[in-house]
């Protein structure tokens, strides 16, 4: 049994405030319900299971979270682990909808077993996806889950199964610590990293610990000297500040050694100094004092107050050279910045800021990501990669700071502002100068997007210049929707013509018994019906015969050889788009091909076509034929033969092969010894064409056959 009076006093101590009687009663009820739900269950340590949710609630209290979140922490395992003794409905009736929503969210996240390590990236990122979903509903779900994971990692020594222990540690390092970092909850992030490090790399962990301990006393003395030196200098300048030393965590030391390929002795930022002052103006005054007593290192100054990080982090960072010739990083911030730096988004709950504002844009983006993920537009592994990318800070002409993934281009910026601005992108100015579409954004760039409202939309070639998976997804979606809209409109045109032919209104035509029966039998929506008509699967004559009570045909797609082909070629992974077949080289399925972007769209050329040799590579797209034999293609043949009346034999052969000849022209050779026949024929593939050429070459009197 939990001593609730003692527990409540402990919470008040951690929260640094007295709880109201109403709050106390709610907590007592929550503890009682949790004890009932977990009765008879024990942890690996041998302790009653109830000790775990109690410790989780204490962690949440140490983060200064609200009573709703603390109660959710007490109850977070009751639905999942009580075998039906406690239900979500009961929790909602007793504690309200918010608590029930958080508990339900934690239960769902707890069921996620994140594949980690060398498992394929997509499966790993599905965990990130589900975490995002939970946060989009209520970010406190993740606060509770992080506290839950932190307590489990603090007690992981009781897990005997080494494989399971390492799995949990790796999951913590790869999934939970990065999310804590993105939310700016560094007090949890650092501890999760060090606890995981200890399990995964015990040898390296204890090596770092020993190396840190060796000169610990000397390091502490040096740190105290720097702290006192800065305190005195600030006091002399009438600046009241809390100055404290800070020490690098074991995992971050080891990570830096690995990434920079350095020995422990070469890591110079094991210690740092933090000065906490009263307001923003004093931060900059204190910076002047710091640079007066120590020499600043060039290129090692970062102003995150003027340009905060995407998780809202604000501070001034400067690295100086001390009197001992060693580099020392100084952080300067005010009290609110410090709380936000330590507790991230949680600090907004401390200050009763329950609505996430512009400085926490990352959370607003969760909803956008969620929508795109549900529509299958963004590759999940791409999304996980984006979460871990560094960022650049750029500004709009109005001075709004926008943070983008490192490597983003102006087209990414346009789509980040608004999808429609991206779709109507006409160019960009950076720092007042026109830049190309592939310009990579740099910190501090002022970016102005030029828009052409009359443009019909993006170019497929823009995908090449986009860095963000979301930008690419939006461009791809535009083309899919555009093609569908065109087919629907074509279908409507056919219906309009048919209604005129039959002299009835479009409404009556669509209400016709036979038309309705057809739509129902083929399980079509009205848009799908129009699409099928637009793509040629259902023709004008088919509909006419249907209404005139003629037997229904097997409605397969009717095709004809055309310069504009559908469903024949995939361009950069996108199918079902209109393409044009180049007249100059007339490719057919089986030829190696390439797509060339132009104002008309994408034109398909043979890879060795002389007309594309000098075309800019940025206009070229990977193209491959799709396995659709319903399309027919025009191609040109040049046949040279002697003058012994061979033309009839040639035409007979083509007829026997069911080859449609669209046109032909005869010319005599310059020396009058032979005749050239220039034919345009219809084929379905290169195999069919090669067979025809082979058969023609076998004929006597045929001197040469070649494609033109």
TrEMBL record:
Q: What is this protein called?
A: GTP pyrophosphokinase
Function as written in the Swiss-Prot or TrEMBL entry: In eubacteria ppGpp (guanosine 3'-diphosphate 5'-diphosphate) is a mediator of the stringent response that coordinates a variety of cellular activities in response to changes in nutritional abundance.
GO BP annotations of the record are: guanosine tetraphosphate metabolic process
According to the UniProt record, one GO cellular component term is: plasma membrane
Its EC number(s): 2.7.6.5
Give the keywords, sorted: Kinase, RNA-binding, Transferase
Q: What class of enzyme is it?
A: transferase
Q: Which residues form the ACT domain?
A: 635-708
Please list the residue ranges annotated as the TGS domain: 388-451
Question: According to its UniProt record, what is one Pfam family this protein matches?
Answer: RelA_SpoT
Instruction: Please state which protein family the record places this protein in.
Output: Belongs to the relA/spoT family.
Annotated PANTHER family: GTP PYROPHOSPHOKINASE, GUANOSINE-3',5'-BIS DIPHOSPHATE 3'-PYROPHOSPHOHYDROLASE
Alphabetical list of NCBIfam families matching this protein: spoT_relA (TIGR00691)
The protein's GO terms of the molecular function aspect are: GTP diphosphokinase activity; kinase activity; RNA binding
Say which species the protein is native to.
Thermosipho japonicus
Task: Report the pathway entry.
Answer: Purine metabolism
- Does Coiled coil count among this protein's keywords? no
Task: Specify the HD domain's residue ranges.
Answer: 49-153
